[in-house]
User: Fold this.
Amino acid sequence: MTTHTPAEPLRHSAPGAAPTTAPTTAPAAAPAAVEVRDLRRTYASGAEAVRGVSFTVRPGEVFGLLGTNGAGKTSTTEVVAGLAAPTSGTVRVLGHDPVRERRRVRPRTGVVLQSGGLPGDLSVAEAAAAWAATLTAARPVADVLDALDLTRKASTPVKSLSGGERRRLDLAVALLGDPELLLLDEPTTGLDAESRRAVWDLVGELAATGTAVLLTTHHLEEAERLADRLAVLHRGLVVAEGTVADVVATHRAEVRWHRDAGRPGDGVLGPGDTLALDGRHVVVRTASLQRTLARVLAWAEAQHLELAELRATPASLETAFLALARGADETR
Assistant:
């Protein structure tokens, strides 16, 4: 997929706004695009999908909700989108209640849920035009289709699109209203690698022009690439929040090898290192990967040991995410 630059950038602006001039005083801090406080959502079955989640999304920021399936990402997004009321807690979108003040919120918000609902018999251009007709000030349909590389599919029925093409159409429709807030629930599901990266580039461009983006994903690479800040959800709770660097910094690197080689004595490892068995592997977790790996290799050399399946893994969002999920389960 190749993205094209439309005649105008995909960015929001107030209708009828005058040309911008340099302010004579420092502007006031922009209010949060999304404020979620102690959100809880319980289904009729009694299942508690969200159990006290809080976070803020600022204008021009990509905020990621990261978690495994069933973590509460979609349940949270549906409340922010105004599609469901919270069981308790408060949600404000662009300063308004997204359920009670939906008419004030909806025109300023673009939503891409996991499954779209566009009529399958309409062509791509017809479906986009039908949606644009419901908006007060829609962007030109041709510009948005071009930005999502859908121009050549304009006459194709929606039902004949591939899964990835439908996903791009969902995103195109969400952008027609020139939203100040874009809600993306697993936006690149079904896309090939090239299309996924093109969508990432587009989301980055939108954030750079001031659009706030709430992104839910279970793809760690997507979160690392896009999120300015993120919250890791597990079983309906926030178990970590901050920048990717903040989250990664709270976890440690690992050195592991097959347990048949044995374990080093207490004097081999450095201060703060921990040693454990993980299945068939001996695992050393450390804040200093280079130091600990050197100590382990020196021990193995002195003992004439072959460390089968030796692997050194630096701290990453993946290792932090897995450790957070494992730790949350252990404390339940």
Notes: The first helix runs from residue 73 to 80.
